[in-house]
Design a protein that fits this description.
Distance between the termini of chain C: 33 Å
Number of helices of chain C: 11
Number of domains of chain C: 1
Chains: A mainly alpha, B mainly alpha, C mainly alpha
Helix content of chain C: over 70%
Order of helices and strands of chain C: HHEHHHHHHHHH
Structural class of chain C: mainly alpha
Radius of gyration of chain C: 19 Å
Shape of chain C: globular
Oligomer: heterotrimer
Radius of gyration of chain B: 21 Å
Chain lengths: 672, 239, 315
């Protein structure tokens, strides 16, 4: 569709910018009385309402033509360009919906003892939301980088909310470091994209045709830069540190939304700004995505901290999304845009799903943390009795993330596997052969994700409480329940009505790949058949209907023909007379089979007590090998270089004057 | 595709299956069984080729294969196993799942290698060339990975199976002279290996080929290396 | 969706529910014959299920609603799966709602609910069973998916009725990739149905239990439903195997005569399959739990190899 420049009437783009201003204003208002908790109670729900409005504007813009605007802000010769098109609108919709639910939860969550005053948290939070929205509508490289850096800084302050703890400060520092490494890569990518013209607007970049190996350089810089923010291997190390360190709503926002802005950036550069793609880029993205997915899920299986487990699970899901994008690139570059559209739909659907179920799970851990003050899985258990609301909504989230029908995780997985099955039609036989291996790796990651989530849910909510103090746990407050409930409803709706969601995503396909999935398929409102009915079809409504129908009929028949009597008694446990809470599996115990099978991938440090130990302690830590192999050598070489550079600092004024003198002489020598 | 070509494809798939199964097999007796099965599959496939292309001299090939690979060689191997009193455990450089993963990568590589070659060939069953190359590579992998002697011998023989299959399926048989030459090579190789392994067993009292590593020259110790490090030299270890 | 198709669909579900315990009884019979023992009546599973339904349910003090709901959900998921797999006819209107990938998803749903229910009471056996079951599932589910993908590459569709139609009623051919898939599928179904060599369905020793460990706290109607559901799972897996590898005899369309003719074919195939299963169980020994990854890894890689052979040979 042709772009529509600013006409002055109020349209979706104006609406989005108004919401951004509203968020910034809310943030500023929060600072008026920073220590007052009522700030949180009143202004966060206002931020939630703004989020809903943002989602509404984005939904309108999704089907509409792209709109442009030039803001009178910025530097004299570099004004800010903004643009809203289908791709931006989709991610704005994601941002609006997820942030509305998270803001609602936060209004009941944040307390005075978070480490920073509530008003300051409110400021950082809303600036973070505003920055993310601006990243999604920025239309020139300068504005994009300004918004990107603001997003990184605001999230840094949010991560270090509890800044009095050393480990949290360290996590924040690592996060900021890698965010900036990524930002440098993105900046260089934009530099490559402008093709020597000097005009950094995205429109100019679209008009340029890059020659030689510049497109590949731009793509790989984008993959590195946006991958650092998304958490792709090997630049993922900040994720498992930063997410546990941040307060839970912030972790939810980062995992659910911020990682998706990186995906947005990757899509924008690959499909929109670069004209043609090479098919081998897709193979690299596919391989990297699958490696990341397997890495994330294997490490998640051995974690003993709730939030680290969820952080590694986020790494896995981002890997799946990037793998789907890689597949889309492979198809599109080989002239099969319809199949590429299916793969891209799977990627975007998974991004949307992840925003919902990961936020739900992180917020649930937040409630558990506030209620029990425990983060370690080894000290939780049996919380379904004390915290029923949180437990049942977290169950929905767990089933969704494990990819079980009829919820939303299964739909995106289904679409991606369907896309994989089309690959034998490719001309490159090498890629054809690799694809069964890739599909195998994907299903392995998905199966292991189910394992990890059963571990998470079972150890936290089921079983018996592993610590005596858990008896005092209480359920979440009203606002927290509301936030969790909305996210759970979102998961269910996304799972039961995939055709409508895909119709929405189709606008993005139409913009990026110039094809649309809808006319080719034979879907109706209750049946999803992306290509042809005989080929494959899936109807979540019918599956849900049949399962619940069978369950209800069974309950009815059993209670009618026989009876429904129940007696309560102590647990049987095979006749063992004693049953303590320590007899059930710990988190390490549950992950032990995976640790044993995948031992070479972890750097395991284990301390087993000997039988004669009077105070036996069992210690196990699984550390990331990439730390030792990649990051430590780089850190050491940077320090070595800094030491060498430090030799320049002699401390005496005469030496410094000597430097200026030598430079002057050298310049005079070269100028003449 | 005619029924003959389909049958040859099926036999090719079973051959690859058997080569893969040999990679993951722990027990030596089962290995010998699988090798005999491979010989049988080879004989059947050659018989089908002989029938469909009406080349009667291939029937002699079938008879030779049956005699040697299904009866004589497995019997010799069983005898060797009994006399050398071999233990049943799997000992390899890497564990079984890793071996199989490497195997899959080799199969992909072999398939890709064979695709352009099979365009040029003119027979109907040219696509089985990839499978033949893959089974040769898998047998080679088995020879590299396993540490005991008998699996290495079987790997060597299985390699020859793969080559034979490549010859019969892709080019519809070899001249009898070439075939007899290869068979003689294999037989002589077997005899030499048999003598060799007896000698190893005499020397080290075990068939673990790791013991052969003790025979390398001792390197001169570097100046500055502590006396303790010098004392721990290979020859002071117990065999 | 015609009335005939709806009828054939319901008939198939009813046949699955009715015949599943009989299949379990038949396998037990064959095992006893092969061990030179006398087996109990072939109808014993039916009597066991009835006996369990009559009893009062005893539920642990600290059981949550998940514990009580799980048997129903597992039973519902298995019934749903039985409605998709073509055993008598390929005219299955419900087959359009769930394809092969959804079938694996349904099995995963049942497995996850069972594992969660096992962890619910907080006993050592429950969490041990849950951990082992999820571990086996993590290895077996990809292998099953790869087997189904091999079949779908051949038939160009992931919808099970279409796969059976192509393989049974299409031009007769020998598919070498299905040889790989067949071996892999046998290994996977042994693992998923808790049979030797992965799990012993008759054991109650803590070192050897996987499936049984998850059922220890259940009694009465809940246990009856779970036993019925695991019989249904065995039936489903057998029917999937028959549909992929021996699909001859399945009626095409909703022709009443063809369905009536398909019934004895199904019974005969299941009888032979059950006897084969008993033979494999008698000839193998149970593996250590940490040899199970090798076993299932082999199955997984064989299935992947089947897909590769399909891509190479074109069949």
């Amino acid at each position: 569709m042709a772009e529509v420049p600013d006409t002055g009437t109020f349209d979706a783009l104006h609406g989005v910018l108004a919401i951004v201003v509203a968020w910034l204003a809310l943030g500023a208002i929060c600072m008026i009385r920073p220590r007052d908790l009522r700030v949180v109670r009143v202004f966060f729900p206002a931020g939630a309402i703004a989020g809903v409005l943002l989602a509404a504007f984005a939904a309108i813009a999704l089907a509409d033509a792209p709109r442009l605007m030039v803001l009178p802000l910025g530097l004299p010769d570099l004004p800010f360009h903004v643009r809203i098109d289908a791709l931006s609108a989709f991610f704005l919709l994601l941002l609006g919906c997820a942030s509305a639910c998270i803001s609602l939860f936060s209004s009941g969550y944040f307390r005075s003892e978070e480490g920073t005053s509530p008003g300051l948290v409110g400021l950082h939070y809303h600036v973070f939301l505003a920055a993310m929205a601006l990243v999604l509508v920025a239309d020139d490289a300068y504005f994009f980088m300004v918004a990107w850096e603001t997003m990184a800084l605001a999230s840094f302050f949010l991560v270090t909310t509890d800044h009095r703890k050393e480990e949290i400060r360290r996590a924040g520092y690592l996060y900021l470091l890698i965010a900036h490494v990524g930002a440098i890569a993105i900046l260089l990518c934009f530099g490559a994209l402008q093709g020597g013209r000097g005009d950094y607007t995205f429109d100019a970049m679209r008009a340029v045709t890059l020659a030689g190996s510049w497109p590949s350089i731009a793509f790989f810089l984008a993959l590195a830069g946006f991958g650092a923010k998304a958490g792709l291997l090997p630049l993922h190390v900040w994720l498992p540190e930063a997410h546990p360190a941040a307060p839970s709503p912030v972790s939810a926002l980062m995992s659910g939304v911020m990682l998706k802005t990186a995906i947005y950036g990757l899509l924008r550069v690959t499909f929109d700004l670069l004209h043609v793609q090479a098919w081998w880029w897709g193979v690299v993205a596919l391989a990297l995505g699958l490696l990341t997915a397997l890495f994330g899920v294997i490490f998640a299986a051995v974690q003993t901290d709730m939030k680290r487990l969820l952080a590694y699970s986020s790494i896995e899901n981002i890997g799946i999304i990037v793998a789907a994008i890689g597949l889309a690139i492979v198809f599109d570059a080989n002239g099969k845009p319809l199949l590429g559209a299916i793969a891209l739909t799977a990627a975007l659907y998974h991004a949307l799903n992840h925003a919902f179920f990961k936020s739900l799970l992180f917020l649930a851990t937040g409630s558990v943390l506030h209620s029990t003050r425990e983060r370690s899985l080894g000290r939780l258990g049996g919380l379904i009795h004390r915290m029923p609301w949180v437990a049942w909504l977290a169950l929905l989230g767990t089933l969704a993330i494990a990819g079980l029908p009829p919820l939303n995780g299964f739909v995106s997985e289904w679409l991606l596997l369907q896309a994989f099955l089309f690959t034998p039609t490719l001309p490159q036989s090498f890629v054809n052969m690799l694809v069964p291996l890739a599909a195998a790796a994907l299903v392995l990651a998905v199966a292991l994700a189910a394992y990890v989530m059963v571990k998470f849910y079972g150890v936290v909510f089921l079983g018996r409480p592993r610590e005596a103090e858990l008896v005092h746990a209480h359920d979440a407050g009203v606002r927290e329940r509301a936030g969790l409930l909305l996210l759970a409803i979102g998961c269910v709706l996304l799972g039961l009505f995939p055709v409508n969601v895909i119709a929405g995503i189709d606008h993005v396909n139409a913009q990026l790949l110039k094809t649309s999935v809808k006319p080719a398929g034979e879907s109706s409102w209750w049946l999803l058949a992306p290509v042809a009915l005989e080929r494959s079809s899936y109807s979540p409504l019918i599956v849900f209907g049949v399962i619940s129908g069978v369950v209800l009929v069974t309950i009815f028949v059993v209670h009618r023909v026989w009876h429904g009597r129940v007696r309560r008694a102590p647990a049987w446990t095979c006749g063992f007379p004693i049953l303590t809470a320590r007899m059930q599996d710990t988190a390490e115990g549950f992950g032990q089979p995976i640790r044993q099978v995948f031992e070479p991938f972890f750097g395991i440090e284990r301390h087993l007590p000997s039988p004669s130990d009077t105070a036996p302690v069992y210690f196990m830590r699984a550390s990331d090998r990439l730390w030792r192999w990649l990051y430590m050598p780089i850190a050491r070489s940077v320090e070595a270089a800094a030491r060498v550079a430090g030799l320049l600092q002699q401390g005496r004024i005469g030496v410094y004057l000597g430097y200026s003198f030598v430079t002057l002489i050298a310049l005079l020598f070269f100028v003449q | 595709m005619t029924i003959g070509a389909q049958l040859i494809n099926l036999f090719a798939a079973i051959l690859l299956l058997l080569a893969f199964a040999m990679l993951s097999q722990r027990r030596v007796v089962s290995l010998i069984d699988l090798f005999a099965a491979q010989g049988l599959v080879l004989a059947l496939s050659t018989a089908v080729v002989a029938y469909t292309t009406s080349q009667p001299h291939l029937y002699q090939s079938v008879a030779l294969t049956l005699l040697l690979k299904v009866f004589l060689l497995p019997w010799l191997l069983y005898r060797m196993v009994r006399r050398l009193d071999v233990r049943w455990e799997f000992e390899g450089l890497v564990n079984i799942p890793t071996t199989m993963l490497i195997g899959i990568v080799l199969v992909v590589f072999a398939f890709n290698l064979a695709l352009p070659i099979s365009e040029i060939a003119s027979t109907v069953t040219r696509s089985t060339l990839g499978i033949a190359i893959a089974s040769v590579m898998l047998s080679f992998l088995m020879m590299i990975v396993r540490r005991k002697a008998i699996p290495q011998v079987i790997g060597f023989l299985a390699m020859e199976n793969g080559l034979f299959f490549a010859a019969t399926s892709a080019t519809y048989g070899m001249p009898m002279v070439v075939e007899l030459g290869i068979a003689l090579d294999v037989l002589v190789g077997m005899l030499i290996l048999g003598v060799f392994f007896f000698q190893i067993r005499e020397q080290f009292d075990s068939l673990d080929l790791k013991n052969l590593e003790q025979l390398r020259d001792e390197r001169m110790p570097r100046p500055g290396v502590s006396r303790k490090a010098q004392a721990v030299s290979p020859e002071s270890k117990q065999p | 969706m015609s009335l005939g198709a709806l009828g054939s669909q319901l008939l198939q579900v009813a046949v699955a529910l009715a015949l599943a315990p009989l299949l379990v009884g038949w396998v037990t019979q064959c095992r006893a014959w092969l061990s030179n023992r006398r087996a109990p009546s072939i109808l014993l599973p039916y009597r066991t299920i009835h006996k369990l339904f009559v009893k009062d349910a005893v539920v642990a003090d600290n059981a949550s609603p998940i514990f009580r709901i799980a048997p129903y959900v597992v039973f519902g998921a298995m019934t749903c799966a039985a409605a998709i797999v073509p055993s008598l006819a390929t005219a299955l209107p419900f087959g359009a709602a769930a394809d092969a990938i959804a079938l694996v998803g349904l099995f995963a749903l049942a497995r996850v609910f069972l594992a969660l229910a096992a962890m619910d009471i907080g006993t050592a056996f429950g969490s041990l069973g849950a951990r082992r079951e999820m571990f086996i599932g993590f290895l077996a589910e990809p292998a099953l998916l790869m087997v189904l993908f091999t079949a779908s590459l051949i038939s160009g569709s992931t919808s099970l009725p279409t796969i059976v139609d192509t393989l049974a009623h299409g031009p007769l051919g020998i598919y070498p990739s299905l040889a790989f898939a067949g071996v892999a599928f046998t290994m996977v179904s042994l693992a998923e149905n808790a049979r030797i060599p992965i799990d012993n369905p008759a054991t109650h020793l803590e070192l050897t239990m996987i499936h049984e460990a998850m059922l220890l706290e259940y009694s009465a109607r809940h246990l009856a439903l779970l036993e019925w559901a695991s019989a249904l799972k065995l039936f489903n897996y057998s029917c999937i195997g028959l549909a992929l590898f021996v699909p001859f005899g399945v009626a095409e369309g909703a022709n009443a005569l063809a369905i009536i003719a398909a019934a004895p074919a199904l019974v005969a195939k299941l009888a032979i399959g059950g006897a084969g299963l008993a033979l494999i169980e008698t000839l193998s020994a149970k593996l250590r739990i940490f040899r199970a990854p090798e076993f299932l890894g082999t199955a997984f890689l064989l299935a992947v190899l089947g897909m590769l052979v399909n891509l190479l040979l074109g069949s």
